[in-house]
């Protein structure tokens, strides 16, 4: 085969990069649609714009995605928000959020992915999760007390967050995930940003109430299943009861 394997590998990497950028652009539109086009008043959009800039998405593409999501100009975003509930291997509860312009196409494709890894989609498993505001941020001062910051910001809970859990957290920074009431997400994000924290995620999502015990092999199997879901073009978020 000569060096054909190398060309194939590069093609896969380039495809992954293109898919990642595509999801970032869709996130910009979704954030603008849900919270408006002003990043100073929309923490989810602010975080999405920062991620897009780090991924070298051009200013023109960012602005176009925001205008499209906010309904400004001729181009309008026509997307439906669809939530799928099911289980990964080893009975790990999963919630999948997708944005699609064709539900009739997306739904059977997601069902196929679930059937490949599990017994299929569940009727409902949202009771296994807390529906909360999630703000992930980092601070250069590693000596800060995240619990004190959580109290000041108005969050209900805080937990440590490392670069391995979120690669937007610099390795030499203090990382934390703040959980709040859904209606308080913006206030928590705003307080953190004003007090030296770099906000990398600000959104409403799902946090599992309990986690099944998994060995390394089981965790790897679950990881492969979740990655297959993440790789679907219409999937925007995957929430799973796995640490």
UniProtKB/TrEMBL annotation:
Gene3D superfamilies in alphabetical order: 1.10.10.200, 3.30.70.980
InterPro entries for this protein: Integrase-like_N, TACO1_YebC-like_2nd/3rd_dom, TACO1_YebC_N, Transcrip_reg_TACO1-like, Transcrip_reg_TACO1-like_dom3, YebC-like
Molecular function in Gene Ontology: DNA binding
Span of domain TACO1/YebC-like N-terminal: 6-71
ATP-binding keyword on record: no
Record's keyword annotation contains DNA-binding: yes
UniProt keyword list: DNA-binding, Transcription, Transcription regulation
Domain of life according to the entry: Bacteria
A Pfam family the protein falls into: TACO1_YebC_N
NCBIfam families in the record: PRK12378.1 (NF009044)
PANTHER family given in the database record: TRANSLATIONAL ACTIVATOR OF CYTOCHROME C OXIDASE 1
Entry's family note: Belongs to the TACO1 family.
Name of this protein: YebC/PmpR family DNA-binding transcriptional regulator
Organism for this UniProt entry: Actomonas aquatica
């Amino acid at each position: 085969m000569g060096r054909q394997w190398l060309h194939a590998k590069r093609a896969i990497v380039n495809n992954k990069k293109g898919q990642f950028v595509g999801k970032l652009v869709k996130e910009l539109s979704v954030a603008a649609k849900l919270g408006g086009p002003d990043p100073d008043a929309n923490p989810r959009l602010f975080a999405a714009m920062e991620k897009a800039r780090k991924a070298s998405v051009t200013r023109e593409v960012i602005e176009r995605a925001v205008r499209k999501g906010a309904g400004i100009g001729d181009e309008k975003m026509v997307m439906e928000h669809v939530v799928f509930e099911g289980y990964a291997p080893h009975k790990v509860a999963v919630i999948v959020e997708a944005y699609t312009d064709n539900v009739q196409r997306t739904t059977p494709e997601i069902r196929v992915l679930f059937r490949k890894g599990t017994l299929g989609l569940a009727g409902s498993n949202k009771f296994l999760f807390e529906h909360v505001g999630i703000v992930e941020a980092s601070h250069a001062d590693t000596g800060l007390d995240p619990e004190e910051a959580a109290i000041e910001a108005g969050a209900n809970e805080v937990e440590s967050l490392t670069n391995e859990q979120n690669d937007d957290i610099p390795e030499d920074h203090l990382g934390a995930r703040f959980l709040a009431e859904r209606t308080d997400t913006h206030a928590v994000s705003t307080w953190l940003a004003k007090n030296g924290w770099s906000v990398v995620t600000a959104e409403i999502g799902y946090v599992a109430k309990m986690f099944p015990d998994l060995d390394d092999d089981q965790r790897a199997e679950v990881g492969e299943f979740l990655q297959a879901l993440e790789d679907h073009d219409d999937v925007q978020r995957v929430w799973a009861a796995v640490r």
